[in-house]
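thread: overnight batch results

M.L. [08:02]
morning all. the overnight job finished for the chain we discussed friday. pasting input first so we're all looking at the same thing
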Amino acid sequence: MQILDIILYSKHGERRILPLRQGGINIITGRSKTGKSALIDIVDYCLGSSSFNVPAGVIRNTVDWFAIRIQFASCQMFIARKNKSAYLIEANEITIPENIPAQNITSEAIEKHINSRLGISPNLNIPPDTQTRRPLEANFRHALFFSFQDQNDLTAKNRLFHRQDTFLLQSIKDTLPYFLGVIREDTLALQQELRKATRKLSLLQRQLREKDLIKGEGSSQAIKLISEAIESGLINSNIEIPTTIEELVSLLQQVCLTELNENYDPENSDREYELRDRARELQEEIEQTKSMIQAAKIHAQEAEGYTSAAEQQQLRLESIGLFDGILQKSPHNSSICPLCSQNMLQPIPSADAIKRSLMNLSRDLEFVERDRPILRDYIDNLQIELEAKILERRSTNAALQGIINQQEESRRWQTIISNQSRVIGRISLWLENINIEDETHEINSLISQLEARIEEIEDLLDSDNKDERMESILTRIGNRMKIWATEMELEYVDEESAIRLDLTRGTVVVEGAVEDGVSQSRRIPMSQMGSGENILGYHLIAHLALHKFFADNHRPTPRFLFIDQPTQVYYPEDRLELLNSREDGDLQILDESDRDKVQRMFRFIFKVVNELAPHLQVIIMDHANILEDDEFQESIVEIWRDGNALIPLSWIQ
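M.L. [08:03]
and the structure it wrote out:
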């Protein structure tokens, strides 16, 4: 993946194309404030950055769409972005469009397209159990940490990578092993296979344990099952238990043929409900009949009392008949007592009145005597009806109790049948497993195969092996850095010292460093390496060494490196002003020693890029212009002086 062009589309429809060469060095030289440093932010933005870091001012005021054309191994890709809008074309060969028609993709989808074209396989870095951060999948955006070195990166003593901070450094540590090939391309697939194999192994082991538990210890398990069959009534208790396994199996097979008779009539349930309803009705009728009898008896008792009183009164009245003759001979004055002839305060009833009372009373007694047999018959009939209902209730309750007893017997029988059924089930299961040696052998064979495969996968994924591979690769990269540090005549390194990438701190460390010509046992990090020339040099050799490893091992990373203002460490501010004032940007303002160092640095970069050609593209933005160096001059893409810059003057005017 290398960049063919950087394209800007103005807000007035103009187009600005900055072409770049593949597989070599591209130099953009020019004055300050011409837009050189903005190229890194533009490319990063077009490649899906979530932040828009292009400097405010002329560029933002004039540019509508930012775009790049990229070359992959088998195709080209054109990507344009405008705020949150994005546009992408993919083809074998792309002609840069005159304008951007409309958005056709999201920035998230751009990432997926480039991942696919680079060949980044599914991967996942899973942190140790003791750490709480989430698993992280490496994508091409993580590889861009190694493709940009802006002017602040190159002089940073405490950080090696672009935009490095605590959070991003952890992402670099988690994803760099994938880009270095420490993590296998098929790691995620292996992890998924390991999870599946582990689950399957657990299942097979459980099946084997269950079969062993069911099968038991041969004869002893068979005898135990026969004892259960005797206890449940499936086998006569007087049977003689066999001694050989064959006879035991035969007996248990016969038990399994037993037909269980579940003697239970569900129709009794309806009969029970009918009887219970009838019993309730009879009880109500009995209570009602008893009430009627009681009322009739009370009525009879009242009639009897009336008759007795009436008869006594009749006798008294009939005694008045003694005076019938006297009264007929001499009419009686009702105000004079007939016995003593004295006057009475209250007149006595006349004989006619007494007779009338006696006749009325006799008539009432006659009615009572006539109704008495009817009342007795009524009470007798009610009593007969009551006894019949009581008898029916008794028979109903007896029938109901019979059903209840039958149900209890049925439940008891069901319990027996249920126990027998469970025993037969256990016997059947044991008989099925007593003859599965072939199946057990197959399970054991599968378990052995799975255990071997799991061990193999765990070895491939072993974190210790991963750490060893990472250590080995970093050592190789460090050895390359040591060779290049010597070529660049950087300080703190000699034949006895070693250079290492310290990913924990995101820096370069020299172990056994040389100070004042004397080898030291201590480690010196980049933050203690003194001059800006050393800091610049270690930044360059670290990134070029990483890209050499990526290219040599065909890793899925971008094959370009942006380097912004590498000569800045040789130009104090006063000299930078002088450099900007020169129309050609030549190094003549530097003393001979610094000119030699600048030229040595560029020769080193050219040497490395030529060795890796065409697998590395380097884009250098700088103030300097080495006029006497033909290779430098041939690598210049554009010179931004005399009004030339990233943004054409016509756009501004």
